[in-house]
Specification:
The protein is of the alpha/beta class. 51% of the residues lie in helices and 13% in strands. It folds into three domains: 2-158 and 312-334, Beta Polymerase, domain 2; 163-307, NAD(P)-binding Rossmann-like Domain (Rossmann fold), CATH 3.40.50; 338-426, no CATH class. Helix 8 crosses helix 9 (190-201).
């Protein structure tokens, strides 16, 4: 069994590509089912955020044909067009990548707080669809452990770091005094809750929350003394706002070029600044052609977060040490899933038990001659071999089954062999 990772992120693809390969949460159950049933994967999980789309899989094969074919088909994109943006990792590299993601050192904002929750949600989605059985469940559980260790044992997560903080920092660079400005927030999810909180802390008190569901907008706005409205009533508020920050889960543009042109006619030349941190994007990039419009998307935050990375270089190295340590533990477990190490461990366990029993009876066997003692050892060894004969046959048979790695893990646990696999097998 092999662990595979296929994906792209903010380092390999611009936002206009990432948004076309994003997985909507509602699509994921069917995607996971199809990956298993139609594309030959034993297990699968999908991690899709504003900065990455990744498929993790357990497979008997080491090639990526099935995963790539599904990615291309699901998003209606020819593979040749997205090929340059994709990365592929197998086994140890795949686990290392996930551990780095969960620890926050592979994020746009180094040490960001949201990614650990997103990794957990990806695992829970995979578990709920029966797509996380043994390998995916294990590697994701260990990734969550790595993420928790990184944040408790290092300062990688010092402060409250997220795309939302970067967006508010960018807003602070645009305006000298945020307290004199009006903000319009599109969306009422966690990202917008963080954004509202950071804006208030930056002394901006005039803001409106717009959401498809007005009740959710009202709930968020009431917590920070803001106003609320429906996205359907958005256009007239664009006339009053100084800055718009958007992060909804809408599949299409929430702010269109025509809406902005209409709003600008009533602004009397006042510029409008928009920060779109959604993937897929909420704001039509065509509005950049409108006079006095300044639009920033999530990729434009790079200049804001560059200082964040330089300040945390030492912490990145400390986190990488945790990743390396946990990787060795994972590979020890992962490499024990095949029949060879299991058979070796079972035989070694039998030999150890034989030696223990001979040691216990040594005093009472002292009167035996050397030949008789060797005979006793031979009898014990023969008995152990006969006892193991059928289990070893079944282990070899199980190894040839489609779900053999799961069944072999059950055998390993039944005989308490978790800690007996020889280190040579994991090197």
């Amino acid at each position: 069994m092999h662990l595979l990772t296929l994906g792209l992120n903010h380092n390999t693809a611009p936002v206009e590509v990432r948004e076309r390969l994003a997985f909507a949460e509602g699509d994921q159950p069917d995607s996971l089912r199809r990956l298993r049933e139609n594309y030959g994967l034993a297990e699968a999980a999908i991690l899709s955020t504003c900065n990455r789309s990744e498929i993790y899989a357990a497979s008997e094969e080491t090639h990526f044909d099935g995963v790539q074919a599904y990615l291309s088909e699901h998003h209606a994109l020819e593979l040749v067009h997205i090929e340059p943006c994709l990365y592929r990792h197998t086994d140890a590299e795949a686990a290392t990548h996930l551990f780095r993601v969960a620890s926050g050192i592979d994020s746009l904002v180094i040490g960001e707080s949201q990614i650990l929750k997103q990794v957990r949600e990806a695992l829970e989605m995979s578990q709920s669809t029966g797509s996380a059985r043994l390998v995916i469940n294990e590697v994701f559980q260990r990734a969550l452990h790595v993420g928790k260790r990184a944040r408790s044992e290092t300062d990688i997560g010092r402060g409250r770091l997220s795309v939302a903080t970067a967006a508010v920092e960018l807003a602070g660079q645009i305006f000298d005094r945020l307290e004199d400005r009006r903000a319009l927030l599109l969306g009422a999810g966690e990202m917008m809750e963080l954004t509202a909180q950071y804006l208030v802390e930056a002394n901006l008190t005039q803001f409106t929350v717009a959401n498809r569901t007005v009740e959710r907008a009202q709930d968020l706005a009431s917590r920070f003394d803001g106003d609320a409205l429906s996205l359907d009533d958005l256009e007239h508020r664009l006339t009053d706002a100084d800055i718009v920050i958007a992060s909804t889960a809408a599949p299409d543009f929430v702010i269109t070029e025509s809406a902005v042109r209409s709003a600008m006619s009533g602004r009397r030349g006042r510029p409008l600044f928009l920060i779109d941190i959604a993937v897929p994007r909420d704001i039509d990039p065509a509005i950049r052609d409108v006079d006095n419009i300044f639009l920033f998307d999530i990729d434009d935050l790079e200049s804001v977060v560059a200082a964040n990375r330089s300040e945390r270089e030492d912490e990145i190295l400390r986190v990488q040490s945790i990743v390396d340590e946990e990787l060795n533990e994972f590979l020890h477990w992962f490499n024990s899933l095949s029949a060879g190490p299991l058979i070796k461990a079972l035989r070694q366990q039998a030999a150890d038990l034989q030696g223990d029993e001979l040691g216990r009876w040594q005093g009472k066997l002292a009167h035996l001659s050397e030949d008789d003692r060797k005979l006793v050892e031979t009898i014990l060894r023969g008995y152990a071999n006969k006892l193991l004969h059928q289990p070893l046959l079944q282990i070899r048979n199980l190894a040839n089954r489609e779900d053999g790695y799961v069944r072999l893990d059950t055998v390993r646990r039944l005989f308490h062999l978790d800690d007996t696999v020889d280190d040579e097998e994991t090197s």
